From TrEMBL:
<protein>
    <submittedName>
        <fullName>Uncharacterized conserved protein, AIM24 family</fullName>
    </submittedName>
</protein>
<dbReference type="InterPro" id="IPR036983">
    <property type="entry name" value="AIM24_sf"/>
</dbReference>
<dbReference type="Pfam" id="PF01987">
    <property type="entry name" value="AIM24"/>
</dbReference>
<dbReference type="InterPro" id="IPR002838">
    <property type="entry name" value="AIM24"/>
</dbReference>
<dbReference type="InterPro" id="IPR016031">
    <property type="entry name" value="Trp_RNA-bd_attenuator-like_dom"/>
</dbReference>
Length: 228
């Protein structure tokens, strides 16, 4: 094989603990003592010495997740090598947390550093909208998180925009938990905004932080993924 034809797809030396290899794959540099929690079944390749096992410490939180509809099956990965993760061609974002808190739809979680704090949390300030429950997966601390998006996402800096940012809840992926969140119903625009049973639902975000939105409003995919 002429290696010049495949040179652009070969991995490069890692520059960070977690980074993208193309838009739809995450590459994690595993080191001894730096375990990772990853979505079960998301491993597509690895180099070096990498082991996988179930995550017993997550059993209680997984039970809580099943009760709220926001659960995610996680496996613990450890060793010394390069680990590649993907989720059926979804776009992947690798986010460094510096003592920050984020709220993520459980079905959009691909991986996170095992030392981060995480668990199912109630989303305050909103009612239960179509396709969007009252609970999400809260992640906090210093470390890395990889999340997925069905298509190229948009990341909105709410502090820079000044006013409120409104999002269709079925397209919402994640947001900074320091943001103020409120629900909004609209009857006049029901045929133009959102998808559902005749009402238009939006979530309004304001304050300092970011919101990640995917170009997909398929709530059935999210609900079915949360129930697996």
């Amino acid at each position: 094989m002429d290696q010049r034809m495949t040179a652009g797809y070969a991995p490069t030396a890692p520059a960070a603990r977690m980074e993208n290899h193309g838009p739809t794959m995450a590459r994690i540099a595993l080191r001894t003592g730096q375990d990772l929690l990853a979505r079960a079944g998301s491993m597509v390749a690895y180099e070096g010495y990498v082991q996988y096992e179930s995550n017993p410490s997550a059993v209680g939180r997984a039970v809580a997740g099943r009760l709220t509809g926001e659960s995610v099956p996680l496996m613990r990965c450890h060793g010394d090598g390069q680990l590649y993760l993907a989720d059926y061609g979804a776009h992947v974002l690798c986010l460094p947390l510096n003592g920050e808190n984020v709220s993520v739809n459980a079905t959009n979680v691909l991986a996170l550093d095992a030392h981060l704090e995480w668990g199912v949390q109630r989303v305050k300030g909103i009612a239960k909208f179509a396709g969007q429950g009252l609970f999400n997966m809260g992640i906090s601390g210093d470390g890395w998180v990889a999340i997925t998006s069905r298509g190229t996402p948009v990341v909105v800096d709410c502090g820079r925009s000044g006013g409120e940012t409104y999002v269709d809840p079925d397209a919402l992926v994640a947001w900074s938990t320091g943001l103020e969140v409120r629900g909004k119903r609209s009857f006049k625009a029901s045929s133009l905004i959102g998808r559902g049973s005749g009402e238009a639902y939006q979530l309004g975000f304001s304050g300092q932080g970011f919101v990640i939105v995917q170009p997909s409003e398929d709530s059935t995919e999210r609900l079915s993924g949360a129930q697996n």
